[in-house]
Amino acid sequence: MENDFETINRLIRTRRSIFPPDYSDQPIPRDVVEAILANANFAPTHRLTQPWRFTVFRENGLVQLADFLAETYRSQTPPAAFSQGKYETTRTKILRSSCVIAINMELHPEKVPEWEELAAVACAVQNMWLTATALNVGAYWSTPGNLDELGEFLNLDPSRKCVGIFYMGYHTAAEKPAIRKPIEEKVTWVE
């Protein structure tokens, strides 16, 4: 049996972006999504603002999100630059997912700067990603170019903003090695 260090080390080093073309048709049960989100809730947060907020799209919700993002792309793209392929890909990657989560951030400017809230949200997403990895759920964080419109679609009030979407699905992707330069190239020791 692995000890805690070996387990976390393995999860961190095997976490990858897994994209919808590799997702299977197997649905992610709601309790699995809830477990992934519950671990997001234990991210570090300065002054306990806990700025992470999530909107979960499943089943018919995926169709609504796919239609919105595709139509927003169509309406914002000049006809000469419009690509039917990109339009279809926008819809397909959402509909191929078992679950898509809008990653939202609640701002508390009277308590902490926005960058600290974004750092806390990113830590929450990393917790989600590591949990998904442990459960063999593929995932990746995407930041579409129409985040402002997505925030409107989500009916976010002015104290909140959308910072991306998190695609998830059980997958058949083969393991890939991480591509990282050695840590020694990124650390300066002062002793």
TrEMBL record:
Residues 12-170 form the Nitroreductase domain. Keywords: Flavoprotein, FMN, NAD, NADP, Oxidoreductase. GO terms for molecular function: oxidoreductase activity. Its cofactor is FMN. CDD domains: YdjA-like (cd02135). It holds the Pfam family Nitroreductase. PANTHER family: NAD(P)H NITROREDUCTASE YDJA-RELATED. Belongs to the nitroreductase family. This is Nitroreductase. It comes from Larkinella rosea.
